[in-house]
Structure formats: C-alpha cells, structure tokens
Amino acid sequence: MSKNIFDYIIEDRLPFFWCEGCGNGIILKSIAQAFADLDLDPKNVVVVTGIGCWGKADDYLSTNSLHVTHGRALAAATGVKAVNPDLKVIALMGDGDGVTIGGNHFIHAARRNMDITAIISNNFNYGMTGGQYSGTTPEPSFTSTSRYGSVEPPFDICALAKAAGAPYVARATVYHVNLLEKYIKNAILKKGFSVVDVINICPTYYGRFNKLKSPVDMMNWLKDNATTKLEEGNIYNNKFAIGEFANEDKLDFSTKYARIQKNARELSAHLEQDLSGK
Amino acid sequence: MFLKTRTEIVLAGVGGQGLILIGKIIGEAAALFEGKNAVQTQSYGVASRGGFSKSEVVISDEEVAYPEVLEPDLVLALSQQSYDMYRSKIGKDSLLIFDSDTIEQRECSGKAIGYQITSTAVNLHSMKILNMIALGILAGLSVSRANIAGFPSYDSLKKSLEQNTPAQYKNLNLEAFETGYKLVN
Amino acid sequence: MTQEVKFLQGNEACLEGALKAGARFYAGYPITPSSEIAEMASQRLPAVGGVFIQMEDELGSMAALVGASMAGAKAFTATSGPGFSLMQENLGLAIMTEAPCVVINVQRSGPSTGLATKPAQADVMQARWGTHGDHAIITLCPTSVQECYDLMIYAFNFSEKFRTPVIFLSDEILGHMREKVVLRDDIPVINRTFPQGDPKQYRPYKPGDNKVPPMAYFGSEYIFHASSSMHDETGYPNNTSQNADKVIRRLYEKIYDHRDEISIVKEFETKDADVLFISFGSAARSSREAVNMMRKDGIKAGLLQINTIWPFPDRKVQELISRAKVVLVPELNLGQIINEVRKLSSGKPVFGVNKVDSTIITPYEIIDKAKEVLQNV
Amino acid sequence: MKKQYTISINEKRCKKCGICVAFCPKNVFEININTVPRVTAPDACIGCNWCYLRCPEIAIFVEKREAV
C-alpha cells in the first residue's frame, strides 16, 4: 500500500502554529511527500530539530524525533547516526539555527560527511524572536535589529556547504514546490551529508520590514528573483540560483568507520606505544 | 612526628627525557612485582618538550594516602634547574644523583653523586636512552644503600621495563639499563 | 575468573571502568588534563564495536552524547574546565530529555584557561548548578585510581537507572597519577529499562517505578519524541503550568528520592574523632595522610571522604559533625563544599583548608590548620 | 472528454493567506479580505495541483472525478 503525507504528519495536530502564509508548512509537506514516495518506515526515521519556528516542525511528525538546543541539531544528529547508521537522520534547521549559531557544526558535519540530510528553512531572519537579522540576511535588508539596513554580508548556504565538502547541495524555494520535493528526495537518497537550502518566506517579519507586505507579495518575490541559470543567481544581490550545486559520491563517515571497527583489534595491536610514556 | 614508612623518589629534569616513563617502570615494578603500594605522579608544563618535568614515585608496604613526595629519599636530577630545585632538600639519609655531564653547579645540602649519564647514553646509542641509563644507575645504587631499600629490585625493574617497552626498542633499552647498572656496581 | 591487575593512570582507569560498564560511544574535544581518555577511547572503542568521534567543540560533543544515548548507546565524554563550561548548555538537554550519559571533568586550575596542566577542585558548584534552570544532578568524585575505575561503573549505573547525565569530577592529580588497580568484574552493570506493552500506546515520558520512564531507542518498535522544551508524557510540547510543575518536580525527585542509594561516602577513624575532616578527591588523600600522622601523634582525627558530592550526603555529614569537636574542610579552592557543610553544622564552627596555588594540599598544611583551630576550642 | 476536479478546502486549517488564489492559473477561486477562499469556477480547474502544493496549511485538496 502506498503511503501518503498523513502517514508522517499527524493530522490531528494541525493547524500548524506558524503564521499565516509562512512557508514552513509547504516544506514540511514536501518532506512528508518525500518520505511517502520513498516508502520510509517511520520507526527508522529520526528527525532532529533545533530552535526557532522551523524547530517546531517535529511537533507535527509521527516519526522519531529529537528536539534539541539552538544550533545543535546537527551535532545531536551526528550522535544518532554514528551509533546507528541504518537510521534515516534528517536535521531541520532554520538559517539562524543551521548556519549562524550552528555554523560550526554545519561545516564540520559536511566535512565529516555524516550521512544526514539537512533541510534548512531559510527565511533570512529570526522569526521566532521577532525578526532579527541572521547569517543569511541579504545586505542591506531591514530587520528588527538592522533598522538602518543590515551591513553584514550573508552566507550563501549552498556555497558554504559545497566548500565544506557536502556531496549533495541544492536550493529550491517554497514557490518552486516540485523542485523542492525532488531535491529533498535526492538529498535523502544521497549517502553522505546532503543539504537543501529552502528559500522561505516570513511575511510577518522579513516581509513587513522589507516592503513585501503579504504572503502573496513574498511568493512573487521568490518567483521574480529565482533563476535556474546558476551563473546569474547571486544571493548577495537578492537573486537566488535554484538547482543542484553538488551531486557526487563520496564515502560517508559511518561507512569508513565501519571498516575501522572491523579491523580495530588487529590495528590496535600494531600501534606503536609512545616511548615517552606520556 | 612522621615515621618514615615510605620510600620517596623524585625524578626531575626536562620534558622529553623520558622521566615519566621510568617513574612508571619503578612504580609498576613495586606495585605489580613486589606486592607493595606505589603511587607515581607527574608534574609538567604546557610544553611537551624542553620545559621542566618531574615524576615522583612513593613506595610503601602500607597504604600510600598522600600521593606526592614529602621528604625525598632519592632524587635524580637531569638538568641544572632540577638540581637547583632539590640541592637544599637533601637530608642526611637522602641521596641526590645527577648527570655530571650537564650539571656544573654542584653545591648540595647532602650526599650528591654524579654519573656521566649523557655521555654514556650517547656513546651507547643516543640521548633517547638517557632515561634507561639513569634507571640502571638507580637500580645499582639501591643494591648497596640501605636508605633506599624500598626501591624495587633489579629483577622487578627488568620485568617492568620489558612490559613498558615496545618490541623494537626492548633490546636497546635493556642494554642501556644494564649499562647504567654496571656504572655503579 | 581472574581479574586483571594493572598499574594505571586515573584517566586510564576511567576508560577501563567505562568500557566495563558497557560504554560504546564517546564524543569529545581534546583538552588537558583529560586528553588521555579521548586518546584511549579512540583506540579501544572501535575494537568493541563502539564509536569514537572527535567533535568540533564541546557544545557539539555534549549534543552528540544525547543523540547517541537516544539511539541506544551508553555514551560518555571527558573534558576539563573550559570545555566543561561549554558542555553546560547540552548538559541541560540531557537532563531535560532524560538521556543517560557520563561527563568526566578532570578539573584543572581556572578561571578560564587558567593553568592547563595544574590541579584544582573548583568546579564543584559548576557541576551542581552549571546548567541553567532548576534541576538535580548526580556527581561522583574519585580519590584513587581504583575509585576512578569502580566509581565510573557506578556513574554509568546511576545514569542508566535514573535516566540522567552523571558528572564524574576527577582532577589533574588523580587523572595523571598511577596506582595499582584491580579491573574488577564483581560490580553488577545496570542497563536502562526498555518499555513493555503495545508500541502504539507508548508514552516515552510516562514514569515507571522510581519516577523514571522506561527508555526505548531510535529504530525500535517504540517510536518516540524527545524534546529539549517542556513536554508531557507523550514527549510532545505541553506548556501548561500544571505540566511544568509536574515535570520539573519529577526530574528533581527521581534523584533526590533515591539519594541514599546514590550516596557513596567512606569513613576513616571517625568513630571517636575530635577533629573531623570532610574532604573529597585528591584533597581527601592529603586529609587521610593527615589523619594517619595525627593519630600517631595522639590526636583523635578522622575523615569523612565524600565520593558522591551531589546529592550532598546531608544526613551523614550532620551525624558526624554532631560528634566532633572541630570540623575542617580541605579543598583545592577558596571554599565550595565548606558552604554545604556549614549549612548542616548547627552553629558548630567549620574551618576551611584552602589552596589555590595549583599544587596539592600537603598533610602538613592540614595538620597545622587543625592544630591552630584546636587551640581555640 | 474534459477531466473534472473536486476542490475541497479545510476551513478550520485555512489561515486565509491568499496564496492559492493568487497563483491559480485558471482563477478558480475568489477571496474577500480575510475570508476563506471560495471555489467559484470549479469547471475551470485543470488539476495542476499548485494550490495544494503551495498551501502552507495542507488545507486544500484537488481530486479528479469522472465527468457526469
């Protein structure tokens, strides 16, 4: 029997607590659709979330979940995955969670190539605390802590992930839902660290501060500024390139570590003792 | 006030000389092969090589509660700095052993004996075995001196040394130990 | 079965104890004077099917422990002062999600980077109150290499039984000191209780016996949610004040209701002691030597050695204080445990023997202070 | 024969954001300020499913039905 989104989303817990027009619901639905299409068994799925609006996503899911502290979702997910590599581990983080307070864990999870899928709801600000600027806020946008316009250049999450070694990196928006579903599916299927940077809308704060008053205005903003011509998409100019930026095969941490486990007794015997007796 | 039931050994010098390893060998020899209680402690700075380094061993038939040396019975000094640190702490029953190749200022409050530890090590192999030469000297001294009677025997030390040496260095270390031992006896 | 006897460092004995207790996951970040534990864990864990991972920092290490614990592993880490400070955030996560794990803090001199290779015992209150919010915590403190091994098994046992992080407060002296240790196998190993019944009805935070909820692991038939935020028995958020009250009290009571079981103390010559020392860790070693010396000198001295610092052994301390003439608390700080003792002293004077010059307290220093105090009684 | 679709809206979940209305290529919906959208031109629906896909509340569903 084929599965549908409500095999993963608990319908009784709806409506979502997110603001009207917030794209988080679209992302969560796309994730559930990907789970259904891949016929994942909920007991083998662990969704790890951090703090922020998107960190509440696990409240609606019937899979296993671990809701942790701000910025630490990938670190906790690393512990889960390292102990049981058979689990599908999905980290849901916002732009604040994933690449600002949690930026160090993000680059190291990518470098280490943990087999985890990171789905980042990137709405360019801290929605839950009232719309302050984050590490991805485009310059010079207005937020509740950059009332004269942000002077800090933003991270390009995809460029960051790719440079740090992630074998799968893609970007979609909550407007381009078919692409979004496809990339999430590809990311889950990829053995290794996979990142989907989802450009999301926050009409309540980011939109309101930046003359994009309604959810529809913001959706149009995504539509108008997204480009599939990767060379034109420059996040620093409010243009978002959407597409797959990395898709390669690399051995992940757990596969490599399993080899060490297999040979450790033998290897251990050959380790040279330290003569200094430290 | 304090009845001496402990044999207290200080091995002092420079980080990288392998003093902690010989401290471990002495302690392990006493604890595992002579049925005694032994505690080995160490003190070192943030640099792995070159800075002041010290290893202490306390051996007793009774329980060793306080783990560090209170009144040293035997001090090995392999640098001028460590010699200076202990020269005034050598009582009438204690003994200071030093490397006469490298230590020039030799005033001491008690009995101090110098051996050519560096040149012996270099002649035999290299500075790498400095610690093993020194260990051999200490083993040799303990045979003839009652005040360090608690020091482990030659046989126990040899067993402990073998157990704490990787196979490829075993023969070299044993030779160095033997050479040091013979410098005394 | 013959038990192995070895001559090991305290740090090495901690690792042996952890392995004996069934530890299979280590996440950590190197820091002096704890690094030997990480080094040996990296060598030993994969050989028993476990995983060692060197994380990017201590924040991540502690978070990884919680993830690993939820995935079913007995997990531990080792650190020292600055790293312990970073771990406080996710130590709270472990308390809230009730993730069993063990955190070894080989204490060094602070504040901040301080003296990296020198001992101190100044993280006692940080162990108790370092993470924010009202909570209970179990903290064990060894005084010998043998206790590093034995108490490490107890640390894992308590963490598994009560679903809580346990802090293992060692110090630089113990960590690097070598002594004979018997790798005993007569301490029973306790494992977390797995849930029973219909997985569909599973409520991951419904307390069982002892106010402790049985614990599934990710990947089992018992699907569950664990949350850093306030949650009810289902594991899903519940922000009502009734629920918050219930949860916070239960997290506290599941430990404090069992304090007699958790409490480990050792007494030396306390029966007729006029001079009572109350001490822990390496300072307890000095205190014991002081007791030996004073007894030989005809002074009735005794020592209460505290191995379980938190919960503090209130009743035992009260009982012994009531019989003594003077009470002294030697510790390598300017007065942390002494404040707990003073709360229980019913007005009897309690004196500190404090040292912060980054060297161990000597028995002479303790004896001098005791004699000075005795003159004024 | 032209395919026909039934569009259902879960009014309890709908937060009236207007996205379904704005991006429907066939103007199937109508909305007044702060009301749940009404399906005013069901026969115009081509079953593209964009209203479902872009609805942040999983509050709108499109089902194919046989023409009568």
TrEMBL record, chain A:
It comes from Biomaibacter acetigenes. It holds the Pfam family TPP_enzyme_C. The keyword Oxidoreductase applies. GO terms for molecular function: oxidoreductase activity, acting on the aldehyde or oxo group of donors, iron-sulfur protein as acceptor; thiamine pyrophosphate binding. Residues 58-198 form the Thiamine pyrophosphate enzyme TPP-binding domain. One of its GO terms (biological process) is cellular respiration. The keyword Oxidoreductase applies. Keywords: Oxidoreductase. This is 2-oxoacid:ferredoxin oxidoreductase subunit beta.
Automatic annotation (TrEMBL), chain B:
Residues 15-181 form the Pyruvate/ketoisovalerate oxidoreductase catalytic domain. InterPro entries: 2-oxoglutarate_synth_KorC, Pyrv/ketoisovalerate_OxRed_cat, Pyrv_flavodox_OxRed_cen. The keyword Chloroplast does not apply. GO terms for molecular function: oxidoreductase activity, acting on the aldehyde or oxo group of donors. The keyword Oxidoreductase applies. Keywords: Oxidoreductase. PANTHER family: 2-OXOGLUTARATE SYNTHASE SUBUNIT KORC (PTHR42730). This is 2-oxoacid:ferredoxin oxidoreductase subunit gamma. It comes from Biomaibacter acetigenes.
UniProtKB/TrEMBL annotation, chain C:
Coiled coil: none annotated. The keyword Oxidoreductase applies. GO terms for biological process: response to oxidative stress. Residues 16-240 form the Pyruvate flavodoxin/ferredoxin oxidoreductase pyrimidine binding domain. The keyword Oxidoreductase applies. Residues 273-365 form the Pyruvate:ferredoxin oxidoreductase core domain. CDD domains: TPP_PYR_PFOR_IOR-alpha_like. GO terms for molecular function: oxidoreductase activity. Transmembrane segments: none annotated. InterPro entries: PFOR_II (IPR033412), Pyruvate:ferred/Flavod_OxRd (IPR050722), Pyrv_Fd/Flavodoxin_OxRdtase_N (IPR002880), THDP-binding (IPR029061), Transketo_C/PFOR_II (IPR009014). Keywords: Oxidoreductase. NCBIfam families: PRK08659.1. This is 2-oxoacid:acceptor oxidoreductase subunit alpha. It comes from Biomaibacter acetigenes.
UniProtKB/TrEMBL annotation, chain D:
Transmembrane segments: none annotated. GO terms for molecular function: 4 iron, 4 sulfur cluster binding; metal ion binding. Residues 5-34, 35-65 form the 4Fe-4S ferredoxin-type domain. InterPro entries: 4Fe4S_Fe-S-bd, 4Fe4S_Fe_S_CS, Fe-S_Ferredoxin. Keywords: 4Fe-4S, Iron, Iron-sulfur, Metal-binding. This is 4Fe-4S dicluster domain-containing protein. It comes from Biomaibacter acetigenes.
